[in-house]
Amino acid sequence: MKSYSDIHQDVRTIIITSSLALGGSEKILYNLCNSKIKKNVFVINLSEEQYFSKKLKDSGIGVYNCSLNKKNNLLKKLIKIFFIIREFKPKNIQTWMYHADFLSLIIKIAFPSKNIFWGIRNGSYKLKKQTFILIFILSIFSYLVPNKIISCSNASTMMHIKFGYNKKKIVTINNGVDFHTFRKDQNLRINARSKYALNDKDFIFSMVARWDPQKDHITAIKAFDCLTRNHREKVFLILAGTKIDSTNDILMEEINKRDLQSRIILAGETNLIEDIYNLSDVNILCSKNGEGFPNVISESMACGTPCISTNSGDASKIINEYGWIIEENNPKKLSEAMLLAIQEMKNKDNWIKKSNNSIMHIKSNFSIDGMVDRYCDVWKINF
Questions:
Q1: What confidence tens digit (pLDDT) does each residue in 269-294 have?
Q2: What 8-state DSSP symbol labels residue 120?
Q3: Please, what CATH class does the domain formed by 186-365 belong to?
Q4: Contacts 24+ apart (CB under 8 A), 357-365
Q5: Are 182 and 302 in contact (CB under 8 A)?
Q6: Which of 141, 169, 147 lies closest to 379 in space, CA to CA?
Q7: pLDDT 10s per residue in the chain (383 long)?
Q8: Can you spell out the DSSP letters for 249-278?
Q9: Nearest Cα to 60, choosing from 114, 97, 11?
């Protein structure tokens, strides 16, 4: 039976991640690996087989799912991880999210000569007790274990410095956008609108976010209700994400009591987010706090769809002058921004210019190639 190193012979960096589930941080990890470095990385997933485990394997990237989150045979699983590291003899070990960062404390003892790089993705100050304790422990060891700590956003960097992380070791590398997937596509817009029985003259707002109090769907619904009561043109709001469906009692109550059933479309969880961005005229992010680098903004803008967002995480940096920044938890301000967007779109030439400038801004500042190059610089790997 062939070993991992027989199949993947030129691994220079092993990436250890807490999860490969369908999520923003995991998608960025996939984009990082599925690039010019794909033959030079191997991924150890501390969870069981998940969505991006299969996608990585399908792309020819080595993955070991060790299910360390399940408590049985922990020692055996740890030994397997150490065996893989010893087998590959990588120059670097990049960890991804807190539990993987914590595991590096043990790895550094077993392999003291390895370069260790932590990956921090979180920007939320509202933490569970266990996560807070984990961050406190990691903040102490941040002075001893990692060569560098890679943060995805300025917001995440500032948060971890406040929690005591070694600021001299932190490097900020923003997430990159997959421009093959997220691009302006008129045919996709037409087909996606047809799928939801929408025509080209309808003004469509979208919100792509899992159901979570931090994402604040309630503010979006209240703002949209205010907009529809004061605006007679055909306006719709499409919501997409995990638990965004008719089985969500709280969501349905908010929609039904405002009689918005005919105006709000529930797209649910979808792998075709680019369809939602393309069919939309404006995308909304209502997060109260906790965003690091909100991918939904950069992805939407890459499709030519401007955004309205709260000033959460690096939202204002991503949007720049090509959208609208509003206060958190303020339906009135959001409704006003939505109305302003509708009015601006009536000037077609200016709206096309705003759309095209959004695309150019994202392509110039948040490409996958640029992100990968920054990682290679930090890892000191040349191609």
A1: 988 999 999 999 999 999 987 788 99
A2: E
A3: alpha beta
A4: 357/322, 358/301, 358/302, 358/304, 358/305, 358/306, 358/322, 358/323, 359/184, 359/301, 359/302, 359/303, 359/304, 361/301, 361/320, 361/322, 362/177, 362/298, 362/301, 362/302, 362/318, 363/179, 363/302, 365/174
A5: yes
A6: 147
A7: 445 555 556 899 999 999 999 888 999 999 999 999 999 999 999 999 999 999 999 999 999 999 887 777 888 999 999 999 999 999 999 999 999 999 999 999 999 999 999 999 987 777 888 999 999 999 999 999 999 999 999 999 999 999 999 999 999 999 999 999 999 999 999 999 999 999 989 999 999 999 999 899 999 999 999 999 887 678 999 999 999 999 999 999 999 999 999 999 999 998 899 999 999 999 999 998 778 899 999 999 999 999 999 999 999 999 999 999 999 999 999 999 999 999 999 899 999 999 999 999 999 999 999 999 999 999 997 65
A8: HHHHHHHHTTT-TTTEEEEES-S-HHHHHH
A9: 11
* Main-chain phi, psi angles of 253, to 5 degrees: -65, -45
- 4-176+367-379 and 186-365: identical CATH topology: yes
Q: Which helix (H) or strand (E) holds 64?
A: strand 62-65
**φ/ψ (deg, to 5) at 116:** -110, 130
Q: Which residue has 């000037």 as its token pair?
A: 347
**From the candidate CATH numbers 3.40.50.10490, 3.30.300.30, 3.40.50.2000, 3.40.50.300, the one assigned to the domain spanning 4-176+367-379:** 3.40.50.2000
Structure tokens at 51: 């969505």
The residue ranges of every structural domain in the chain are 4-176+367-379, 186-365
Helix H or strand E segment including 336: helix 331-345
C-alpha–C-alpha distance, residues 151 and 173, integer Å: 6
Question: For the whole model, what pTM was predicted?
Answer: 0.90
Structure tokens at 155: 């917001």
State pLDDT tens for residues 146-197.
999 999 999 999 999 999 999 999 999 999 999 999 999 999 999 999 999 9
